[in-house]
């Protein structure tokens, strides 16, 4: 088709309750289509990758949540609004944890090592830093450009 990528967006609810969405993202991964997950989309990608999610005792709400990018140790100041999280301690084959919440060590980002798929738990579209996270949209656009060549 005419699609260059899939943005798995945020939304409310328990990611485990929408198993069909994880199946859809597995198909997207098999097709090697560029994929960017945000919040609920991140949680569903993590489920598709073999990770587990769980209900947080109080949820992550508001701004100024510190998240460490594992590649270089940079701390990003983030906006968050979710009641579920990806459990630390294991994503599936081919995936790696890219971001960690410094308050409770939950998984804030994952990426596939070979496929053009990555996700963030927090809301980069909120420009919390104020523009710390805009680079992830640029990354997704570049991945789609590369996939179309």
List keywords for this structure.
149 residues; globular; single chain; alpha/beta
Describe this protein's structure:
The chain has 149 residues and is of the alpha/beta class. It has 3 helices and 7 strands. The chain has helices at residues 19-30, 40-48, 135-148, and strands at residues 6-8, 35-38, 53-69, 75-86, 95-101, 107-112, 117-120. A 7-stranded mixed beta sheet has the order 1-2-7-6-5-3-4, covered by helices on one side. Strand 3 and strand 4 (75-86) form a beta hairpin. Helix 1 (19-30) crosses helix 2. The radius of gyration is 14 Å and the shape is globular. The protein starts with 5 loop residues before the first strand and ends with a helix.
How big a fraction of the residues is strand?
Answer: 35-45%
Main sheet strand line-up: 1-2-7-6-5-3-4
Order of helices and strands: EHEHEEEEEH
The coarse overall form would be: globular
Low-confidence stretches: none
Category by helix and strand content: alpha/beta
* Major β-sheet annotation: 7 strands, mixed
Overall average pLDDT? 90
Number of helices: 3
Overall number of strands: 7
Radius of gyration: 14 Å
End-to-end span in angstroms?
A: 15 Å
Which bin fits the share of residues in helices?
Answer: 10-25%
């Amino acid at each position: 088709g005419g699609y260059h990528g899939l943005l798995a967006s945020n939304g409310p609810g328990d990611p485990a309750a929408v198993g069909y969405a994880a199946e859809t993202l597995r198909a997207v991964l098999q097709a090697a289509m560029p994929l960017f997950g945000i919040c609920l989309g991140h949680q569903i990608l993590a489920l598709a990758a073999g990770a587990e999610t769980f209900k947080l005792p109080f949820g992550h709400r508001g701004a100024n949540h510190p998240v460490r990018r594992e590649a270089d140790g940079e701390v990003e100041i983030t906006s968050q609004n979710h009641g579920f999280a990806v459990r630390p301690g294991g994503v599936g084959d081919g995936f790696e944890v890219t971001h960690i919440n410094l308050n409770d060590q939950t998984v804030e980002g994952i990426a596939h090592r070979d496929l053009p798929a990555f996700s963030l738990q927090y809301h980069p579209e909120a420009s919390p830093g104020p523009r710390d996270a805009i680079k992830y949209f640029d990354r997704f656009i570049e991945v789609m450009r590369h996939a179309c060549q």
